[in-house]
Design goal:
This protein is α+β, with helices and mostly antiparallel strands and about 625 residues long. Helix 20 runs antiparallel to helix 26. It is elongated, with a radius of gyration of 35 Å.
Length: about 625
């Protein structure tokens, strides 16, 4: 159906905007306009205005702005065409004639809406009758009073296989089958889908019944599903429907929150406890379409799934589907309920305050990913830890938005590095055992008979501090120059580079800028890297002529393979060198000759390796 701009303008002109908004928001006349507290965010002083002459509303607090159609889509949560149809009916306007095929589909859907409305009225009638006693008793055990039962439209489907058919005799059999109320099996008479079940209507964004959910009441029927939903029909697509959206949409505009739970009984329990802004998928994991619907209402919906293993798996599946769809300012938060409890259980056992507290402590998506993968497998060996990093990066690769992807990579890499490469403990002096005595038992050694060595001299302490703070700034300048010449090495050695300590703050800033540039996920080119650094007011250090001759990765004409091998050794020397030097001094102070020799051998190995590569 094509709606011309002229037709839409005519629709807007026939609608009094204040009357549309005034149905759900209290407006106060203020000159030629109306004022109110904004329905899109919480405020105490009115900053929301409605201007009928200009046909728009505007909030000076949060920036919400739009016309009557925008109000229906943003505040009511309707689809665009549903909003237009509702406003057109109010304005007495006919929609432009659709093509014959679309008209036939619309007529079919309208007929099914009549069927579903009649079925809903009959189910409610049965609940109030004698046959509905068992269903009413079940509602009482769940703590749902008459007001809640009426508000959510609870009904009852009696046991008979042909009861609904008899009650809705005004509708043809094919309509009942098409609406999903009856089941046809080859060679047998069709029969009612819902029998001996507590019935709950499922509505679309406009509040029209499009499907049903039924809970079995006979516990002895172990071969039947506990909950049974309508099949997909021309009205109902379970992957594109969120239960209670038509009620939760307006409520979420007031709270700024949308709670996503696993089932419709949880939604009703939350609403009965005062949490009006809850929705649920319908027997499936949260789909991409349902996530999009939730994000149209709030930027960060809260997942509040059951506290058992199945509930946590459902939350992780939802996260997996959300990662490719993440966009700036849009994410998810996740509540971890106590083990074995669903939201309804928590409310009954601990009250609304306990749930409200958990909702306030909902964790970010990245926190849940990190904690889940850390707990997913043992982390005892280097291979285990490498597996953790691989799993984390696999999640990152799912993210579509390049900025969010780069930020997730940086954040998770830093968390992994802090976990896998914790700062080394300082080399504290070890107690020195006393020297053995002479044959007569008299001790020798004079001042060395005390097991604790004397404190380091001021000169030694100064050398130790210099080594620990970052020695060899000339080497650091050469390494940073090499990284600018060979940007691919930045990501390769990112974890080592994050451990490097620099005496010169400019070198530290340049290191951070290089790591940030490497996090964008794209191959780094020298020209692009130079531009990125210039924008931040940074530039590669300029090594002196000696450094250009000495280091293969700073001089022109060196084969890439040779330069990259030398650069790797230089990075190791830059990072491990100060730590080894500090450890050597500490071993010297302890008179630990064996440890001193081992550390010196390690340092000499690095130095000789770098020298050999420099000659190459």
């Amino acid at each position: 159906m094509a709606l011309s701009p002229q037709w839409l303008d005519e629709l807007r002109s026939r609608i009094t905007l204040s009357s549309v908004i005034g149905r759900t928001t209290r407006l106060t006349k203020a000159g030629h306009e109306f004022k109110a507290c904004c329905p899109f965010h919480n405020e105490k002083s009115p900053s929301f205005t409605v201007n009928d002459e200009k046909g728009f509303y505007h909030c000076f607090g949060c920036g919400a702005h739009g016309d009557a159609i925008r109000w229906m889509t943003d505040q009511r949560g309707l689809a665009f065409m549903d909003a237009v149809k509702e406003l057109a009916a109010e304005a007495g306007m006919e929609l432009p004639a659709p093509d014959p095929r679309a008209a036939a589909v619309a007529e079919q859907r309208d007929g099914l809406h009549d069927v579903m409305a009649a079925a809903q009225a009959w189910f409610v009638e049965q609940l109030a009758g004698a046959d509905g006693a068992k269903a009413r008793a079940y509602l009482a055990t769940r703590g749902f009073d008459a007001h809640t039962a009426t508000r959510f439209g609870f009904g009852y489907a009696p046991e008979g296989r042909q009861a609904l058919k008899a009650a809705l005799g005004q509708f043809a059999e094919d309509k009942l089958l098409e609406a999903g109320l009856r089941i046809a099996v080859d060679g047998k008479e069709p029969y009612d889908r819902f029998r001996s079940r507590l019935m709950l209507p499922i509505a679309d964004a406009r509040g029209r019944v499009i499907a049903f959910g039924g809970r079995i009441l006979d516990a002895a029927k172990t071969d039947a599903p506990k909950y049974l939903n309508s099949p997909d029909t021309p009205l109902f697509d379970k992957g594109r429907t969120l239960y209670n959206l038509h009620r939760a949409g307006p409520a979420s505009r007031q709270t700024g929150r949308l709670i996503v739970v696993e089932g419709y009984m949880d939604v009703i329990a939350l609403a009965a406890a005062g949490f009006e802004d809850a929705v649920a998928p319908l027997g499936t994991a949260l789909t991409e379409q349902q996530l999009s619907m939730a994000w149209r209402l709030v930027e960060t919906p809260v997942l509040c799934f059951d506290g058992d293993a199945a509930g946590q798996r459902a939350a992780l599946r939802a996260i997996g589907r959300a990662l490719p769809m993440l966009k700036p300012a849009h994410s998810l938060r996740i509540v971890r309920l106590p083990a074995g409890l669903d939201p309804d259980d928590l409310l009954r056992q601990r009250g609304a305050a306990a749930l409200d507290a958990l909702l306030g402590e909902a964790r970010s998506l990245i926190d849940v990913l990190w904690e889940h993968e850390r707990e997913a497998a043992p982390l005892e060996t280097p291979e285990d830890k490498a597996g953790l990093k691989a799993r984390l990066m696999a999640h990152v690769e799912l993210i579509g938005d390049p900025d969010i992807k780069a930020l997730y990579r940086r954040e998770l890499t830093e968390r992994f590095s802090a976990f896998a490469f914790p700062p080394r403990a300082p080399f504290a002096p070890a107690p020195r055992p006393p020297r053995s005595g002479s044959a007569g038992g008299a001790k020798r050694g004079g001042p060395w008979r005390d097991a604790t060595p004397p404190p380091p001299s001021p000169e030694t302490a100064q050398r130790l501090n210099r080594a620990t703070a970052g020695s060899g700034e000339a080497l650091a300048a050469a390494v940073l120059t090499g990284l600018c010449r060979f940007p691919a090495a930045i990501r390769l050695h990112a974890e080592l580079l994050m451990r490097a300590r620099f005496a010169d703050p400019a070198h530290a800033r340049l290191r951070d800028a290089l790591l940030d540039a490497a996090d964008d996920g794209d191959p780094l080119e020298i020209a692009g890297l130079a531009t990125t650094l210039m924008r931040q007011g940074l530039e590669p250090p300029q090594p002196n002529e000696y450094a250009k001759i000495r280091y293969p990765f700073t001089r022109d004409g060196t084969p890439d393979e040779t330069a990259l091998a030398a650069l790797e050794t230089a990075i190791l020397m830059m990072v491990d060198g100060p730590e080894l030097e500090a450890a050597i001094h500490a071993a010297t102070e302890r008179f630990d000759v064996a440890e001193q020799g081992r550390l010196r051998a390690r340092k000499l190995e690095l130095e000789e390796r770098l020298k050999a590569q420099m000659r190459g």
